[in-house]
Every structure is written in structure tokens, then in C-alpha cells.
Amino acid sequence: MSMEKTLCIGRVCRAKAGRGKGRYFLICGIVDVDYVLLTDGDTRKADKPKRKKVRHLECRPYVAEELAEKIRAGCPLVDAEVRNTLARVKAAEESKEK
Description:
Blueprint: H1 3-6, E1 11-15, E2 24-30, E3 35-39, E4 50-53, E5 57-63, H2 65-73, H3 79-97
Antiparallel strand pairs: 1-2, 1-5, 2-3, 3-4
């Protein structure tokens, strides 16, 4: 899968480096080829996203389409929705590991 297809607004990623290593984030914006904007609705609120290098992220096979549509429409993201989405993805991945 090429990087252009994996990087899209609404994609769920896991940090491979930095303070947030191992945490799940939602891509809420694409700065350029090397950087994206991330939110987790908890430590990184949707109104103040984290700028992170793409190479420090591991893209997961999940895209939160309903949240992606809100971002594209210019509607503000609700942190609780982001937290719920990421919690569901994390629970699904942990159940697969067992």
C-alpha cells in the first residue's frame, strides 16, 4: 500500500516514537508530505492538534469516516467522539492479539 493511500484525514495511527509512543491518534489534518496533524481527544485536543512526522507513525487499517466527513465539512471535532473512536479501535486490536 502506498503512503498516499494510507495517509488520509480520519486515519487511525499509532505513534512509533516520541512521548506518545504506543498511543493511538487520529489524523485530523495533513500539513505536507512529511507532517500530519494528530488528535487523541485527551492529551491532544482537537482544537490544538499535534504536528508529527509521518515516519514516526504506524498507520492502522481503520478510517473514521464519520469524523473525516466532519473535518472536511469544516465542522469542529468533539473530543469525546475522537476518544470513543480510538477506544473502539484499541479494543478491537487488543482482542485480535489474544
